[in-house]
Fold this protein.
Amino acid sequence: MADKQKVAFLGLGVMGFPMAGHLANAGHQVTIYNRTASRAEAWLQKYKGQRADTPAAAAKGAAIVFACVGNDDDLRSIVYGDKGALAGMSAGAIFVDHTTASAEVAREVSAAAAKSRIDFLDAPVSGGQAGAENGKLTVMVGGEQAPFDRAKPVIDSYARACVLMGTVGSGQLAKMVNQICIAGLLQGLSEGMNFAKKAGLDCAKLVEVISKGAAQSWQMENRAHTMVEGKFTFGFAVDWMRKDLGICLAEAKRNKARLPATALIDQFYAQVQARGGNRWDTSSLIHLLAND
């Protein structure tokens, strides 16, 4: 068990809300901040902790400050300035960013934190809303070994795996690989399930048998049936995936990696958005095939 810590959690979206809750349930002293105050009040109705009106106030006296917000600019908005987290943190504290963002902003915030002798870890997560709620997230971390060793026992409150991938930015790069792989899997699964329906196969039996072989994946076991049924009003939103794939494609342009399939699937997701599927689950790629 981790020693009980005074921590802050900034950002109570679909991921941050339960993640902060796991910290409170583990016995840590949690102060929360959320841009929409009503969301923070809802959290306090469910978990034990305190609410602050600014990131700086939430971060004051915290050994570790966690953040999980939307994108690079959202992260900057809670980090910098007189009301930002860095203004409230003390030397020796750790800032752990769970936002899926660019490796560039991770390095930028790390450099700013270092000026105040604050350690920084970029630590994007995989596992979706269900993983956050069940405390079974996979956490990919970039940073130095010493702050990672201090933060990991606390992160373990909501993680089933937490691995230091390398220096600052490496966590975000690992998450990019994760999203590239998921996009490819979902397009393949969409084509396979649509083919199965057109061929008149029993899709339930099909998934039962092929999920025991080399085609097995989390996406198949958790999304194939709802894809066939045309159910998408849950899960990881298309808007979020397009944001993530945009980060992947921008990084690939910098490091000269070729992502031809990823670029194509990103455009397929744009077509899903054009059909009004912005908040549909990423498995909704099949909608383009089943309703052409």
Strands lie at 6-10, 29-33, 50-51, 64-67, 94-97, 119-122, 125-126, 137-142, 159-166. The longest strand covers residues 159-166.
